[in-house]
Write a structure and sequence with these properties.
By secondary structure, this protein is of the alpha/beta class. The protein contains 13 helices and 13 strands. It folds into two domains: 141 residues, NAD(P)-binding Rossmann-like Domain (Rossmann fold), CATH 3.40.50; 198 residues, NAD(P)-binding Rossmann-like Domain (Rossmann fold, 3-Layer(aba) Sandwich). The chain binds 1,4-dihydronicotinamide adenine dinucleotide and 3-hydroxypyruvic acid.
């Protein structure tokens, strides 16, 4: 039975019907769609994560394109429904496709897009923030102040880790991993070790040039190393940040065995996807190694945390906000709208006008 649909409508007489499963920041994305004769329907259902059934009800009998969210399961059922409704385009408002079955989309003739690039610096900045928060125990110290426990300066009070001169490890040195690495190398003069399936040539050149600059100014130069295995990064680095895509090869990339390879006082940051880390093993490791710290933006079973994680003082946890800057979220929404417009190309969208209006 069809579910009731709660929507906000823009340009009711538009020729093409485009649905956004969530309200998104800014209005530029709506303007772009409206300028191209789209009727835009935004779901206003008061429910954080829409089910497949909810989305089928939104798609209805006629739908040309959909902008969806990373919390939704875009598989065979939804692409079949979209295709039956005449849909040709889907865009994920996210980087990557771990919630999207691209083969199913292809089977049903639906083109899929995502929104990389505009998230890079914002996400890297959050990874850097978590690295600092964990290294300097900021959340613990904040809680201590608010609890009225501060009685005066003490030599041992909330002693953490100095980053300067230590080694930052990056797993997955793509757009975000490289941006994070540059921040940590340039900002805190850390040495870099990274692991990726591909060589990060521009990142290597950056660290080399920065090292030369430091040396020319009488400072200790920073260094870089491309590790031949992920384990090498885990063994050598003091702060490790995870930035790979999530796929079969990266599921539980950090597991019990790999956690045990890391330094006892290391810091692990995850701003990629929750399942990249075996969270049960992580909780156990945090419990057994109080000097080991983590900064987590993502969780294995979002919105839930594995039992025990919330009690760990050596964990800083935030609710998947790495891309949450106004500029980035508006950019993601704009890119998602453009993806849908471009992929509805059989509808004779006027690309000249689109390009001149962004
Ligand atoms: N927490 C958040 O809010 C956000 C999370 N993300 C996540 O970050 C991921 C990375 O985003 P970008 O840097 O833009 O993507 P990207 O594609 O530029 O970088 C991913 C890197 O991971 C590497 N990689 C793939 N498999 C690997 C493996 N088995 N071992 C080591 N490296 C491997 C790739 O070669 C590539 O260089 C996204 O796929 C997304 O899941 C992205 C944006 C925001
Ligand atoms: O875009 C992504 O990949 C996210 O995780 C949301 O910011």
């Amino acid at each position: 039975m069809a579910k009731p649909v709660q929507i906000e409508v823009w340009n009711p007489n538009g020729k093409y019907r485009v649905i956004s499963t969530k309200s998104m920041p800014g209005t530029r994305w709506i303007d772009l769609l409206v300028q191209q004769d789209c009727r835009v329907e935004i779901c206003t259902l008061n429910k954080t994560i829409l089910s497949v059934e909810d989305i089928i009800a939104l798609i209805g009998d006629k739908c040309d394109g959909v902008i969806g969210q990373l919390t939704e399961d875009w598989g065979d059922t939804l692409f079949s429904a979209l295709s039956k409704a005449g849909g040709k385009a889907f865009s994920n408002m996210a980087v990557g496709y771990n919630n999207v079955d691209v083969d199913a989309a292809t089977k049903y003739g639906v083109a899929v897009g995502n929104t990389p690039g505009v998230l890079t610096e914002t996400t890297a900045e959050l990874a850097a923030s978590l690295s600092l928060a964990a290294a300097r125990r900021i959340v613990e110290a904040d809680g201590f102040m608010r609890a009225g426990l501060y009685e005066g300066w003490l030599p041992h009070l909330f002693v953490g880790n100095l980053l300067k001169g230590q080694t930052v490890g990056v797993i997955g040195a793509g757009r975000i991993g490289s941006a994070y690495a540059r921040m940590m190398v340039e900002g805190f003069k850390m040495n870099l070790i990274y692991y990726d399936l591909y060589q990060a040539t521009r990142l290597e050149k950056f660290v080399t040039a920065y090292g030369q600059f430091l040396k020319a100014n009488g400072e200790q130069p920073v260094t870089w190393k491309r590790a031949s295995s992920m384990d090498e990064v885990l063994q050598e680095a003091d702060v490790i940040s995870l930035h790979p895509i999530l796929d079969k090869t990266t599921y539980h990339l950090v597991n019990k065995e790999r956690l045990s390879m890391m330094k006892k006082e290391a810091i692990l940051v995850n701003c990629s996807r929750g399942p990249v880390v075996d969270e049960v093993a992580l909780v156990e490791h945090l419990r057994e190694n109080p000097m080991f710290r983590v900064g987590l933006d993502v969780f294995e079973d979002e919105p839930y945390m594995k039992p025990g994680l919330a009690d760990m003082k050596n964990a800083v946890v935030v609710p998947h906000i790495a891309s949450a800057s106004k500029w980035t979220r508006e950019g993601m929404a704009t890119l998602a709208a453009l993806n849908v417009l471009v992929d509805m190309r059989s509808l004779h969208i006027n690309f000249f006008i689109i390009l001149h209006s962004i």
